[in-house]
Write a structure and sequence with these properties.
Elements: H1 2-19, H2 56-66, H3 74-80, H4 86-100, H5 104-111, H6 114-122, H7 127-139, H8 146-154, H9 158-172, H10 176-183, H11 186-196, H12 208-218, H13 231-239, H14 242-256, H15 260-267, H16 270-284, H17 286-298, H18 305-315, H19 320-331, H20 335-342, H21 345-355
Length: about 350
Amino acid sequence: MARVALLVVGLALSVSAQYGVPKPLNQPGGTLPPAQAGSEQWLLKPTVFPASRFDARADADLLHEAFKGPLANESVIVSILPHRSLAQRLVIADKYKKYHGKDLREELKEELSGHMEDISKGMVTPLPIQYSKFLKDAMEGPGTTEAELTEILCGNDNAMIRDIVQSYTERYGKRLQADLESETSGALERLLVLLVQANRDESYLVNNQKVSDDVVALYNGGKVNWHDDPARLNQVLALRSFPHIRRVFLELSRKTGKDIKDLVEEQFSSGTEDGYVACVRVIQDPQKYFAKVLNKAMEGLGTNDKTLIRVALTRSEIDLGNIKEAYQQKYQRSVIKDIQEETSGSYRNMLTAIFE
């Protein structure tokens, strides 16, 4: 079992630079659970792994056959895509183009529709390109979804953010920073601009004196005043290592008697508050954060399928198993059961396969 786990990790790390796929062992808050009992060691539980017996050409041929006829055989698509890692799916796409003369993503677009089309196309798209689309979607329309912006930019490492920035420009012909500046303002705008510079300290070591310095600066004179002067808070959130930030959160809670989320909510309002809350939560406890995101997407009338797809695509090879457990613990019910009640058809089958 240990040897299999090492092989899985090795494959994920070896292809990450080429295809822009999740890196299960890296350290950002968006890909690691919070430290337990002062330790930075834990067990990540993905739900999607590389197939052990993988034949990209055979998978490409099966998908090609599934597209023949008046309607695509969606059960074949469900039997393949969620049971391969993103790196493997991108190799399948390469083979599809080589042997069948067409872009697999375009084929899925032509043959499928609705949410089944959206999730299937995402599954054969490099992760930085997926993230760039999620960021663009969060800024389109009459309002901006600030929480999604900070979820992505606070929760990824420097290399991924650089890839996202590049993908955004290539895909939309505009600089991500310029769009962020036009869609946000004030303290949150300055935080987002800092984040896209991708200058975070990515060490694991925590310097106690530096933690103390940040805590003193953030709790200046025995009070919090981030609304009027957010500079130090932004620097901590955008430039410090994730273990360092979690230690700062812990020390602030000890001094103030309040959770970091409560402190943020007291200091900011409206969309700015949403953005900061998402940032601190995705660093502090990503599993609980995404469990709440999923619940919110399904509660009340209607379902936010874009959110379900975003979480499924970006967390399945990192910690979706942990997120399922956090969902069960918080809401006393199965996230898979809720998804099955809120969705239907092949799209439901696809989501179920990813979450299982």
